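Hi V.,

You were right to ask for the full record rather than a summary. Here it is.
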Amino acid sequence: MVDVRRVKLPGVGVLHTFITSDGGKVGVIAHRSGHSDLITFADDEDGPATSKVSLRLSEDEAHTLAELLGGTQITESLTALDQIPGLSIDWFSVDYEDHIAGQPLGSPAERGIAGLTVVAVVRGDSANPAPAPDFKVFPGDTLVVAGSPEKVAKAFNFFRTGEMKPKAGVVSAPPGS
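Predicted structure:
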């Protein structure tokens, strides 16, 4: 586990630092104004030949960098979970024509899809984990669902059409399956 040191910088914000496994020193200054500085640095003992880097990031850029660095781990974790037999994790992008657009999410179990979970609703730059049944879904939202492949397909069909059973000849498999 990485040991992160936190130091308050009066009038500036907070400095978080840690030492990498190869001895590098990394820090992030989170300014009170919202922007952040990503820095690498050296103690005096490392001497003047050590290079130092400082990069100023806006709040959006800092969030993007955090997502890029953390997103890899999340994607790898989801990929590993998706390889569990009988478990499917998929994303449903809500469009204007979809039945679920403008509607409360509801409970999958009450709709006859017991064993399916809506893990989160992603709206813009934020995620709403474990949304309540009264959470209203809008076009542009992305629903993250988990369950058996059959139940995910059934839920996707409901999100699209409002019907629990697909129409004859209509394939309701999740995208990419």
